[in-house]
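INTERNAL AUDIT FORM
Audit reference: QA-55
Scope: verify that the stored structure record matches its stored sequence.
Auditor: D.O.
Record contents follow.
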Amino acid sequence: MAEDLAIAHLRRADPALAALIDALADIPVLERPDRPKPGEHYAALVRTIVGQQLSTKAARSIWNRLVEHFGGRPPTPEQVLAADPEELRAAGGLSRAKTTYLRSLAEHVIEGSLELGRLEELDDDAVIAELVAVKGIGEWSAHMFLMFQLGRPDVIAPGDLGIRRGIQIAYGLAEMPTPAAVVELAEAWRPYRTAACLLLWRSLDATPAQ
């Protein structure tokens, strides 16, 4: 299995990660949280925007409220643009900025500047370039989309605080590493950098709120 290969590689490549693997031996460290089904890329991006800079619990609560407002299903781009922005904010408990970001995403999808159906055909860098062209979707959100929606195996999220904190603890560092240092350190984890991120998050019990 791919998971077994990833764990075996990380164990060989990095003694600090090997120690984490041993410490979490009875925990399914590579499990990913429930996400929209494959192909539901728009819903995944909406959920990612909703979850920005929030705890997993808070993000899930707001997501559930938003879905409930739209009849139990994630909103479509057309529904987002048809909704009154203030009503949308109140219904989901969204910030003004996130409401703007959701509308920007919907506009890009409807006008065709973001073709969600072709993202699976693109390499990681091309996917990131497509996504960050949307207001409110930065590199962190693009990395989360690659990991959790497209299931890409070799993604590193160097700016994620959980990853940086996990590395600090695992390596016994006095301070959290810089994003540049994370990128350098993660070279040894290729081609399973996503698995390493999942392991580090699990070590903190802090899977990101996408």
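Auditor finding: record pair retrieved intact. The chain has a mean pLDDT of 89.
Action required: none
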